[in-house]
Amino acid sequence: MRCIMKQLFAVFALFVLIGVAACGEDRQPPAEQEKDTKAAAATPVPAAQGEKAIIVISKSYQNQFYQAAFKGAEKAAADLGVRLTTNGPDAESNVSQQVEQVAAAINQKPDAIVLAACDPKSLEEALGKAKAAGIPVIGFDSGVPGDPTGAVLATATTDNEAAGGNVAKKLAAAPSFQEKVLQATEQKPVVIGALAQDATSGSISNRITGFVNTLKDELERLNGLQGAVSISGQQKWHVPATAPVKVKIVVTVPPTTSQADIQSAAKSIFMTDNLVALFAANQDAVNGVISATNDATDLDRTRGKYRDVLVVGFDAGKSQKDAIKNGQFFGSVAQDSYQMGYQAVKLAVAATNKQPVADVDTGSRWYNKDNIEAEDIAILLYD
Length: 383
What we know:
The protein is 43% helix and 17% strand. The chain has 383 residues and is of the alpha/beta class.
């Protein structure tokens, strides 16, 4: 009996030793575990049978704008049954890092690549390889402007002219704004300002075009204003009235894009007689307006120096969000980065199926103090 007990104890001890050894093999120093994790992340995982693999590369991985785009891309991937990988450099200025990421993506032989290029010129060689490998590339946000390789088949991005028109429609529909413009006379016309950081940037220029043209059309539908609206200030947007002027839309472009010049231009606009509204066409223009109005306190709706001026903006940023929450800005329009990601993946899937694809307008979203906290809006508003 004692012999049997000894044998059982020996077997039990052997199992314990094996178990301890096995557990010891699984434990690695933290540095080694991190090394293995990074290696695993760098290794492409084969797609399941019949599942398409798409890689999305942004200009800056941690940027809130692109994080919202990734969420849209992930939703599209789930809806369409594809495997998605997201990537991007640690900053938009890190061009070489993005070039390496695009080259690595091509080596993984995905079914498609979705790309917002930091520097299109630096990616020409890589895009040429994607084209040669038969990997379709879809742009999103700014995409890859002027791509000479033919690799980029379409881009999901904001139609900035339509977005500027969106701002104009919201402003024109405001009862308080309509009340002011309907009081305008030939002797005392009202003025609506539009501040552009510059006249050469395609996106900003298109926003101004959409804003001034749409606002003119919207105003001329009101009684007594048919033909009485002019657009002036810059030859590029000059449109004379066809009747005695009652409303002047005046575009201002500072001499340089420095914040000091933008702020100075904003101050000069606020000194205009009978100014009733102002559109700031991008984040830098918005910052100039806020600086010119004592951190927007002059826009306070009850006590502010410019309390009767309705200010509308574009983009987001903390200072603009605060001005909207406080009611100092009437509202603003943000690009829909979520839809950029969603529509880009949708285009990529279509391209992998050899379907024809074309550029898609991903739209813009109006926000004010009433909806700024809504989940579908808040995701688009970066600090």
